[in-house]
Here is the input.
Amino acid sequence: MAKQEDVFKKVISHAKEYGFIFPSSEVYDGLSAIYDYGQNGVELKNNIKQYWWKAMVQLNDNIVGIDSAIFMHPTIWKASGHVDAFNDPLIDNKDSKKRFRADVLIEDYCAKLEDKAQKEIDKAKKRFGDSFDEEQFVATNPRVVDYRQRQKDILSRMAKSLDNDDLADVKALIEELEIADPETGSRNWTEVRQFNLMFGTKLGASAEAATDLYLRPETAQGIFVNYLNVQKTSRHKLPFGIAQIGKAFRNEIVARQFIFRMREFEQMEMQYFVAPGTELDFYEQWKEKRMNWHLSMGLGKENYKFHDHEKLAHYANAAADIEFKFPFGFKELEGIHSRTDFDLSAHEKFSGRKLQYFDPERNESYVPYVVETSVGLDRLFLALFSHCLKDETLEDGSERTVLSLPPALAPVKAAILPLVKKDGLGEYAEKIFNDLKYDFNLIYEEKDSIGKRYRRNDAIGTPFCITVDHDTLNDDTVTLRYRDTMEQERVPVSELRRIIDEKVNFRNLLKQL
Here is the structure.
């Protein structure tokens, strides 16, 4: 656990030191769980968005995108259930005065049980080597079976209690499991109570005439209320999808773990509209497609897993999370949900307008069902950043820190580095920079030794360093250094655009899908 905490502290420190993420309003001591993306962070974030958009919209001829407003009619949130049911179960510790989400405390307890099960599996792998049958071991080992069954029983009970609004049993479960305040060890808990997560605001020129509004807690409703506009203007038949990237806001009482859980965050969502009765088939298809998308970034299949929901949201008939192994354990990265026809039917009821689709093949009108994929952009940023940040010991005994991002997602594609400032090397390097900047995001650096400049670019994930030296003036070749291998080769300046493009073009990721 201590090692994981050290790794996470390194991630947070590196993100600030190298211009990826800063605490918001830091000169005024900041705001809790609010962050700003720096010069390298915004580039990485935009590249992630671009990859998602290309994979979701560009590669699918029946999916289109929109950008809906953050401010929406307040009745939308009544129809969606957020006014009445968008709550978190909270519990206070009487001794530490700290507030926690009761469900998260229980889920963290279960995560420790899973860690124990995984340790048993890892020990057996080492003991049996290539002959190890993991599937049989998991099914028959008494300890692993017990850990997994206890997890299932605990989560099932919690889900049932939350469904029935039996908060007394949620507290009883916490007490039975002897769950303590993770910071102080105290088990002196208050009762569990519900807290609505929406931020309220007002729209209007004067207080007397102002309308009460909410900052949207999710982006999906902007898609649902525009569904008919998009369907009619795009002339798409079912099935078709609407994608969106946008900000959402939740008044998280227990915001934690850096950018994993924030009060202001971005979602990348796609709502896929299908005929009733086909939704579960498409749900399974999108589970597979979304997992393949994540795997295409090369972070390792062992770092992902599906978690099927025990407790379904009020609108769903199936739901699963894609979980990623963050430095603090497996946590939700993306949700795939079969939302049935709840949203469109609710908006029909509250708006009084028909939101039906006429199906020429069935010769009938109906309210479409919806399959949703929703990934947190900030969480995806954290998954990539934390996994790709590595400390390496080199052959000569020295060390380097490298951010081994997929080249297409790297914030800077190449660094142009004159070996020295004099003798015309700077002018030649600037000429290369000005020629390539139309195609790639570059940086130009001439300060410090070439070794220090290499290390700085390793730390921000730059795939290529291009060094201009005295030989360049004679033969128009440069030294091209590769980030991951640190190999260097002489290449003609005329070949730079082709070589860089081969590595950093999004097609390298997209063709894996």
